[in-house]
UniProtKB/TrEMBL annotation:
Cited SMART domains: MADS
Source organism of this protein record: Citrus unshiu
Keyword Coiled coil: yes
Main location: nucleus
Protein name: Uncharacterized protein
Biological process according to GO: positive regulation of transcription by RNA polymerase II
Lineage, uppermost ranks: Eukaryota, Viridiplantae, Streptophyta, Embryophyta, Tracheophyta
PANTHER family reported for this sequence: SERUM RESPONSE FACTOR HOMOLOG (PTHR48019)
Occurrences of domain MADS-box (ranges): 1-61
Coiled coil: 136-175
Length: 233
């Protein structure tokens, strides 16, 4: 049969209690050392016996350093708990005020929309009307500025489009002018040398020599059909 579960209660026998304390103390110190080595944790263990004798264990860092760290963390946690409690108290006091303000704002919105006007007095209605008139004036002023900005933007856009059309038309006209002026062809000069004597108003021009004429014709580029005409002449 397995070992039954030990009931945790104070050991009445003094000797047995002392023996159990010694065994459990050694086991507790061993477990503290193991967890510090295996898990790389900072461990501080303090045990006082019934006679007031101190037994302690700490990792490589000193016991004082671990206790100071514990006190800092405990103080911070205590402050956080205190602050949370204070904040909860403040919120509990602030909640009714916020709720009433929200109700007033919702009522004002309904009044601006034309609802819940029956409970309002004459002075409240006049004040509401004045607020609505002021809001309408601001709305109209903002609308006029928006329209003016839009008109200015459209005018600038139209001006840019007009300039673009003018530039395109100018380019087309320049292109048409270039296409309508063809280049004039150049022909070789046709020169038939020789002196020709003719009578012109009493002046005599020497007639060319036949040999000189043929020599000039050879050196001149003329069509084939002109050779016979020149020879016969």
């Amino acid at each position: 049969m397995g070992r039954g579960r030990v009931q945790l209660k104070r050991i009445e026998n003094k000797i047995s209690r002392q023996v159990t304390f010694s065994k459990r103390r050694a086991g507790l110190l061993k477990k503290a050392h193991e967890i510090s080595v295996l898990c790389d944790a900072e461990v501080a263990l303090i045990v006082f016996s019934t006679k007031g004798k101190l037994y302690e264990y700490s990792t490589e860092s000193s016991m004082e350093r671990i206790l100071e760290r514990y006190e800092r963390n405990a103080y911070v946690e205590q402050q956080l708990v205190t602050n949370d409690a204070e904040l909860q108290g403040c919120w509990s006091l602030e909640y009714p005020n916020l709720k009433s303000r929200i109700e007033v704002l919702e009522k004002n919105i309904r009044n601006f929309m034309g609802g819940d006007l029956e409970p309002l007095s004459l002075r409240e209605l006049q004040y509401l009307e004045q607020q609505i008139d002021t809001s309408l004036k601001r709305l109209r002023n903002r609308k006029e500025r928006a329209l003016q900005d839009q008109n200015n933007m459209l005018a600038k856009k139209a001006q840019l489009q007009l300039k673009e059309k003018e530039r395109t038309l100018t380019e087309q006209q320049n292109q048409m002018a270039q296409n309508s002026s063809p280049l004039m062809p150049t022909f070789p000069s046709l020169t038939i040398g020789g002196n020709i004597q003719v009578m012109m108003r009493g002046s005599v021009i020497d007639e060319p020599d036949e040999n000189q004429t043929r020599q000039n014709m050879r050196s001149t580029v003329v069509p084939w059909w002109m050779h016979d005409h020149v020879n016969h002449s």
